[in-house]
């Protein structure tokens, strides 16, 4: 049975590069992983007043994470940080206190940007935020995809060979990381 990996996309944009990167990761994944791409469309705002009786969309999102063996975030960078929609999703899934849906899950963080820095600030910010509420975060290799605007064709397929190679290497390293964590926990 392949390990189930939820790939959370930090952009709601229909043509988001982050979404294309997520699909490219799913396509490149080895047989030991099954990647499911999750957009955050329709996830309502976190509001502490609603915690006693959480909305159905929060519960469904938390359940998807809990049912997965691991999580990969694909994040764009907004103002040197993560987009609000992703911030909201993390807050929703981090609750109730001490019962984060991410607890114990191995996590991968993929930064990307049409610019030259590959979303590294967003990825670092995400790593800092996640560190107290999830399992181990893959630290090496890191992945910051730069110039993503030039790397896909109209069908959303990767057109850049270097890019294909880096995505492949990353998802294979993530598969080995998940395997190591599963063995360590057995
Ligand atoms: C509000 C906002 C802030 C942005 N800030 C940054 C930034 O700090 N660094 C960066 O590399 N790109 C920045 N960008 C450009 C995004 O990288 C670009 O819009 C990208 O396509 C968004 O990701 P997506 O294609 O996955 O939706 C920003 C875009 C927006 C809309």
UniProtKB/TrEMBL annotation:
<dbReference type="InterPro" id="IPR050712">
    <property type="entry name" value="NAD(P)H-dep_reductase"/>
</dbReference>
<feature type="domain" description="NADPH-dependent FMN reductase-like">
    <location>
        <begin position="5"/>
        <end position="140"/>
    </location>
</feature>
<dbReference type="Pfam" id="PF03358">
    <property type="entry name" value="FMN_red"/>
</dbReference>
<dbReference type="InterPro" id="IPR005025">
    <property type="entry name" value="FMN_Rdtase-like_dom"/>
</dbReference>
<protein>
    <submittedName>
        <fullName>Putative flavoprotein</fullName>
    </submittedName>
</protein>
<dbReference type="GO" id="GO:0016491">
    <property type="term" value="F:oxidoreductase activity"/>
</dbReference>
<dbReference type="GO" id="GO:0005829">
    <property type="term" value="C:cytosol"/>
</dbReference>
<dbReference type="GO" id="GO:0010181">
    <property type="term" value="F:FMN binding"/>
</dbReference>
<dbReference type="InterPro" id="IPR029039">
    <property type="entry name" value="Flavoprotein-like_sf"/>
</dbReference>
């Amino acid at each position: 049975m392949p390990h189930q990996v939820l790939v959370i996309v930090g952009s709601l944009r229909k043509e988001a590069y982050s979404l294309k990167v997520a699909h490219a990761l799913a396509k490149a994944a080895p047989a030991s992983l099954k990647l499911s791409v999750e957009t955050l469309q329709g996830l309502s705002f976190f509001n502490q007043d609603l915690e006693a009786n959480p909305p159905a969309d929060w519960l469904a999102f938390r359940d998807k994470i809990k049912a997965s063996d691991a999580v990969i975030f694909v994040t764009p960078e907004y103002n040197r940080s993560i987009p609000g929609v992703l911030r909201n999703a993390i807050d929703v899934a981090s609750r109730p206190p001490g019962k984060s849906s991410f607890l114990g899950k191995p996590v991968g963080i993929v930064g990307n940007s049409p610019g030259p820095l590959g979303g590294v600030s967003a990825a670092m910010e995400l790593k800092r935020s996640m560190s107290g509420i999830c399992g181990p975060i893959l630290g090496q290799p890191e992945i910051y995809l730069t110039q993503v605007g030039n790397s896909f064709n109209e069908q959303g397929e990767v057109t850049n060979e270097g890019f294909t190679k880096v995505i492949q290497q990353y998802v294979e390293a993530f598969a080995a990381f998940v395997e190591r964590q599963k063995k360590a926990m057995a």
